[in-house]
Write a structure and sequence with these properties.
The structure holds two protein chains of two kinds. Helix content of chain A is 23%, strand content 20%. By secondary structure, chain A is an alpha/beta fold. Chain A has a single domain, classed as 3-Layer(aba) Sandwich (Glutaconate Coenzyme A-transferase). The longest helix of chain A has 11 residues. The radius of gyration of chain A is 18 Å and the shape is globular. Chain A starts with a strand and ends in an 8-residue tail after the last helix. The N terminus of chain A is likely disordered. By secondary structure, chain B is an alpha/beta fold. Chain B has one domain: Glutaconate Coenzyme A-transferase (3-Layer(aba) Sandwich). Helix content of chain B is 33%, strand content 19%. In chain B, a hairpin with a 5-residue loop joins strand 9 and strand 10. In chain B, helix 1 crosses helix 2, helix 2 runs parallel beside helix 3 and helix 5 crosses helix 7. The longest helix of chain B is centred in the middle third of the chain and has 13 residues. The chains are: A alpha/beta, B alpha/beta. The interface between A and B is large, with 56 and 55 residues.
């Protein structure tokens, strides 16, 4: 796999504006892939070098399991259901599944998991999904609309609130849309960089959080990190995506890195693992 | 004295209208058999506590047993929403449903405080979020030993906790393995405890492996033997999670009439779990058995005379 290459800020070579699946690198031996597959692959690669990852339900589940099979073979998977060092033989639909226990390092009570492993500071990365996110990485997974009279009642925190506070850093994976990347989230379920990096750092210190907050947001269009002000910045755009698409699916004017990179396309092996081993029914990639 | 009884008698004797009921089990060991019996006996005005209400509380809410939910994650994992509950919350259809919402760690802490006879449980969560505004029972407290502020949640003491497990003896000494969730904390926190097991074993089986005992008979009021009683949830080593049903429920529950038709057929229409399992059919049941064995090996506790 080649490293990200810098390209101009206004165009991505080979960018197509049509819907997924996108074709990439015709004639270069790179297979066709969908936007969802690109997102999962990009998220998995971000886990290279990490040691202990707390796995959220949904897209984080497949991304983390792909990382374990590729860039992070020694990654310890922690499931909030109580499995530490899970080695699932199949991709679980739920984050509670018998396959995450058989062969795991430890099966512990949720009290131990949240008290000793998470609040005790042993989790390097908390990997979350979200319904809404703002420019500072604050997350809503509780309600759309007013809390007491919601337009849409979402699942709520689960463990996300304490993961965002106690995991050393937070990765987020979610698809971009004007409904999900919003100027104002309707409810703050999990804190990110609050109103900006400076105040967030002070509050974290004063309140004794172990976490440094969000560090990566991977979407179906690109990869964002957080700049010195604590705001999301597009650092890499996926092959086939355009900056127009990025801007059309964000509820604020996004910051874009001067040396914007092009995300390397999924390798045939990454695609094979997703399609043949992790998600043969296409539950995560459709 | 044996505490072994039928599901019908256990629910009739130990679950009363208006109770706070916790059918615990985090994705694993969720006792659907008990939930269905509560529906069949038309219990009313229950407060249902669980970290993840899951399909079992969606069904119990659809059947009109509940007035309130105490929870931390309200969804069908990997599939989507819980539609019967959402109808009550978003549209008050057919009636409003009161919610009392925490995070997972908050709910675990509530059971822990309840089980330990403590006035609250402290945790480092909820900072800078809207959860304490949504639920004023989540409150900040200052450490008596320094400047730290943490959040507190109140104890949760269910009137009845129902836990499913692999095995117990007749006195209710209960062993389980796999994901333990907060079954132990929920059981110790409760006024009354019903244990439902796949297998009734002799006391000597329990005593041969005391580390695996999660709930002692001391706190158990009734033991119900109900094989396959956790379906479509699962029991480690016995049967798999029926993901097909979790997906099917999404379509079944999208409209009230199809939800009621399902309850009529699969809950009101059967006498109990044995009949439900017959109705599932031998093929469906066989397909959920593990594809192979993964025994734990054994340890030597030693004899000391």
């Amino acid at each position: 796999m080649s490293g990200p290459r810098a390209i101009g800020p206004e165009s991505a070579p080979g960018a197509a504006s049509g819907p997924a699946p996108v074709a990439s690198g015709a004639g270069s031996g790179v297979a066709d892939f969908s936007r969802s597959e690109m997102m999962i692959v990009a998220a998995a690669r971000e886990l290279a070098g990490q040691r202990v990852c707390f796995v959220g339900v949904g897209l984080p589940n497949i991304a983390v399991n792909l990382a374990r099979l590729t860039v992070a073979p020694t990654l310890e998977l922690v499931y909030e259901s109580g499995a530490f060092g899970a080695k699932p033989a199949r991709l679980p639909l739920s984050i509670g599944d018998p396959t995450i226990v058989t062969g795991a390092t430890a099966a512990v009570s949720m009290f131990e998991l949240f008290s000793f492993y998470l609040q005790g500071g042993l989790v390097d990365v908390g990997f979350l999904g979200a319904a809404q996110i703002d420019r500072f990485g604050n997350i809503n997974s509780t309600v759309i609309g007013d809390y007491d009279h919601p337009k849409t009642r979402l699942p709520g925190s689960g463990g996300a609130c304490e993961i965002a506070i106690n995991a050393r850093q937070v990765f987020v994976i979610m698809r971009q849309s004007k409904r999900s990347f919003v100027d104002q989230i309707d409810f703050r379920t999990s804190p990110g960089n609050l109103g900006g990096a400076e105040s967030a750092a002070r509050i974290r210190r004063e309140e004794g959080w172990l976490g440094r907050g969000p560090s990566v947001v991977v979407t179906d269009l690109g990869i964002y990190h957080f700049d010195d002000s604590g705001e999301m910045r597009l650092d890499s755009i996926h092959p086939g995506a355009t900056l127009d698409q990025v801007r059309e699916t964000i509820g604020w004017v996004p910051k874009i890195a001067e040396s914007l990179a092009l995300t390397p396309a999924p390798t045939p092996e990454e695609l094979r693992l997703i399609r043949d081993e992790l998600d043969p029914e296409g539950a995560y990639t459709k | 004295m044996s505490k072994v009884t039928s599901m019908r008698d256990a629910v009739a004797d130990l679950v009363q209208d208006g109770d706070t009921v916790a059918i615990e089990g985090f994705t694993h060991l969720i006792c659907f058999a008990a939930g269905h019996e509560i529906i069949r006996q038309r219990k009313r005005d229950l407060t249902l506590a669980r970290l993840t209400p899951d399909l079992i509380y969606d069904q119990m809410v659809a059947a009109g047993t509940a007035r309130k939910l105490v929870f931390s994650w309200l969804g069908n994992p990997g599939v989507g929403g819980l539609h019967a509950i959402r109808r009550r919350v978003e549209d008050a259809d057919p009636a409003p449903l009161e919610l009392e919402e925490y995070s997972h760690f908050g709910m675990v802490g509530r059971y822990t405080a309840g089980a330990s006879n403590l006035p609250f449980f402290p945790l480092r969560s909820y900072f800078e979020t809207d959860l304490p505004k949504a639920n004023p029972l989540i409150r900040p407290i200052r450490s008596p030993y320094g400047e730290d502020t943490v959040y507190a949640v109140p104890p949760l003491k269910p009137d009845v906790t129902i836990v499913h497990a692999q095995r117990a003896d007749g006195n209710g000494n209960t062993q389980m393995w796999g994901l333990l969730g907060c079954q132990k904390e929920a059981a110790f926190a409760a006024e009354r405890v019903i244990v439902v097991v796949e297998e009734l074993v002799d006391e000597s089986v329990i005593r041969a492996d005391p580390n695996r005992t999660v709930v002692p008979g001391l706190i158990v009021d009734a033991v119900v033997v109900e094989p396959f009683g956790a379906h479509p949830s699962y029991v480690q080593g016995a049967y798999d999670r029926d993901n097909r049903f979790y997906r099917d429920w999404d379509a079944i529950s999208r409209e009230a009439p199809s939800t009621q038709a399902w309850l009529d057929e699969w809950v009101y229409g059967v006498g109990g779990r044995a009949e439900y399992v017959d109705k599932l059919g031998v093929d469906r049941v066989a397909a959920l058995r593990p594809s192979g064995q993964a025994p734990s090996g054994s340890v030597d506790y030693g004899v000391y005379t």
